[in-house]
Amino acid sequence: MSAHAEAHVVDHHDDHGHHHKETFVTKYIFSQDHKMISKQYLITGLFMGIIGIAMSILFRLQLAWPEEPFTVLEIFLGKWAEGGVMDPSVYLALVTIHGTIMVFFVLTAGLSGTFSNLLIPLQIGARDMASGFLNMISYWLFFLSSVIMVFSLFVEAGPASAGWTIYPPLSALPQAIPGSGAGMTLWLVSMAIFIASSLLGSLNYIVTVLNLRTKGMSMTRLPLTIWAFFVTAIIGVVSFPVLLSAALMLIMDRSFGTSFFLSDIYIAGEVLHNQGGSPVLFEHLFWFLGHPEVYIVLLPALGITSEVIATNARKPIFGYRAMVASILAIAFLSTIVWGHHMFISGMNPFLGSVFTFTTLLIAIPSAVKAFNYITTLWKGNLQLNPAMLFSIALVSTFITGGLTGIILGDSALDINVHDTYFVVAHFHLVMGISALYGLFAGVYHWFPKMFESRMMNKNLGYVHFWVTAVGAYGVFFPMHFIGMAGLPRRYYNNTNFPYFDDLTDVNVVITIFAIITSAAQLVFLYNFIHSMFYGKKGPQNPWKSNTLEWTAPIKHIHGNWDGPIPHVHRWAYDYSKLNMDESDYVIPGQDYAPQHLPLQENEEEMHH
Amino acid sequence: MTAFLVVLVIILFGVAVMQMSRIFKMSRQQSNTSEIANDKDNNTHGWLMLAFVLFIYALCIYSFYEWGDVMLPRSASEHGVEIDQLWLISMIIIFVVGIITQWLLHYFAFKYRGEKSQKATFYADNDRLEFIWTIIPVIVLAGLIIYGLFTWTDIMNIDTDDDPLVVELYAYQFDWRARYGGEDNTLGEANVRLIEGINQLGVDASDPYAQDDVIVNELHLPKGRKILFKMRSQDVLHSAYMPHFRAQMNCVPGMITQFSFTPTLTTEEMRATDEMRDKVQKINKIRTENNIALAAAGEEQLEMYEFDYLLLCNKICGNSHYNMQMKIIVEDEEDFNAWMKEQQTLATVLKQ
Lengths: 608, 352
Hints:
The structure holds two protein chains of two kinds.
Chain A: H1 2-14, H2 24-29, H3 34-64, H4 71-77, H5 88-124, H6 132-151, H7 182-211, H8 224-255, E1 266-267, E2 270-271, H9 279-313, H10 320-334, H11 349-361, H12 363-377, H13 386-408, H14 411-417, H15 421-450, H16 458-484, H17 504-534
Antiparallel strand pairs in A: 1-2
Chain B: H1 2-27, H2 39-67, H3 78-111, H4 127-156, E1 165-172, E2 175-180, E3 214-216, E4 219-222, E5 227-233, E6 238-242, E7 247-251, E8 257-261, H5 267-272, H6 274-296, E9 309-313, E10 325-331, H7 333-342, H8 346-351
Parallel strand pairs in B: 1-5, 4-10
Antiparallel strand pairs in B: 1-2, 2-3, 5-8, 6-7, 6-9, 9-10
Helix pairs in contact in B: 2-3, 3-4
């Protein structure tokens, strides 16, 4: 390893001086530089996030004030909201695209794509990704898939509206729902391209982490961010191809008359020829990706949190090895729990028992992680920057959402709350909100690295945080109650029959919180755009962090370091480490010892 | 096109705001505060963290106080009581764990809020602590898993020795039908390819078992007798959800799925329970209020509500998914038999 890395370092360094001149196109558009690509991912992700969140506000209006006319609905939905009253078909389209955009485009590409790209080379001490070219292709495929997804909103019969899980036969038959026509085709094409993008990105991340670590950066010295990105990429490589296969088979069922997922169907007055397929097969294939996807979304957020909490607590992350072990355990278990989405799908009840067992097992590494975060705060010297607040809140929503997972993972209990709002509340807290907090923590923390030392305004950050934190619980805590009342999800209207009439005021509360919370995101957006150009410049290492990215020069250069790549002599978490006679920190007067700092005199060597 | 214009206007508006703020910024003197949290920030937000955990508790208490009554009433089926018991135990556990961990998390965030003079403790590892908080979840979860699996197996492994009443639940966009086995309690063969005219469920008219089948659009169930449901779907996935009986199973085209339960409370008995009376009263109060508004607008009045069990569709199945439901009536065995006698058998219906 080290010989190879050194050779690489040397020759890369040599040709650094006579670098070709960059044009606008190679620098900002078809850039192969990981820092620029990460910004492209972030901005595309945020843009998609605006669409996704705006959609949620539109359908929340309908849920709180069913069939009440709103001008805003007519403005955005046009012919699907004549007179300002939302049409049932567009309601389903909105929830479908909201789910798709938030899960894949914002929390997979926007979160993992941004920070894997930014941090992997910088934190392991590499000049760039293993293949800058593939990395560029990966981003542009993501961009293309985003464009297609957004374009699908404008087709005649409406976008895909079979739910983000696109279960056939509903998604296969345009006779069943109008959105399953051209809208669904575009959805599938967009996702197929997205998967290709994700695979190219993931392979690149894996190769980079394995091969391009600087001298001294052993796997056990990697910051937890890198561990999280690395393992996330592995899960992606294992599970995304399965979704691609499901999508291809669905395309064939839709367009070429095959019967992978269709059998015995009578619709619109005629019997279809399809025979022998099974929708349950699709559910298996979908959730074989779908569940690991939860961890693809969550692990990078947890990695970011680990780094931000340790840095701002001025303490090493508690139980580094246990944290790595739990990431690995979660990754392994995540691929064998998919069946808990299917307890009542009609699959053999014995399988349900197996999946209950594996599902509740995954609670163990998750619990270890939560406890370790709490212990990291204990006796720290917490610097409550916005990134730190978001990280603490992430642990909070991760606990709350994770605990209700114990209920849903239990097959017997799942029978009665499956597909109700209880599930919606659960997964929004545990993966939606938690991962978004991870994204925000990452943006606030690494903004100075991305935008050449410009910092985001902290007071706007605080406003953004507190409104979001209160609002997120305000939206999703009451939602558990309407789930426990037995209200099915994806109902356009809960008052069509009287039984759920008493849930209307809960829905109003939820919608009001949702509107306030999304308004707070405008504060973030303003802060982000404004700080990009006019943010105050901070020091090179504003958070006094140990990791290598802060040793790189403020000005972005291709190759990251203008001199030789720093070598690593310690792990990333020597915060507040005292010298041997405990008279002062390892470096007197400085409570952190960066990774490139050699072992000092009068310093005890740890295992790292 | 309008949508596109609106988006464009919003973007331009954003640009305008940015430019204005830029002018605003330039006209103001740059202040020298840094964007890194100082002791004052740490203090403020430390306290707010403490306030936040209290907010979570308060929200929790308020929700229970205000909306505790929207939850499902007691179970109307035998196995539902087991599920409710397991639910209660799991809820108690997660509430205890949740309350403690949230407190520790936010309290530490408050207690150890940073100060210049303060030093953090270098504390990287403790195998014993790690072991303790690995083993405790292992034990608790093992208990829950075993309890849960026994309950699950009891519910799902259907024993047909005690002669359950066989009922087919037939789902299609966007309604339900129920088919009873009739005298012989055996359902006739059926396939979507046999759907024709009045034979809406595609029952094989030549099958001797099918002759006495009874097809209805209001599900009647006898109290105290085990019911074996056979679910079928005609077009897309549906899910037969009977929340009051803690019962749910997907209806899958091309496949027959099943679920079984024993109803224990008749519709009348459920209507007479305190929680249901309160709920119905609350709903009717809301409906009365709505009626005042409707009367003012000169629109049709809402009927007053009386409780009935419901079979809901709980798997997205198309535009009218939200309104795909069937009434369930649970009655005493004699009433059920009397009702059944009035129904026409399939043979008679097809002859007409």
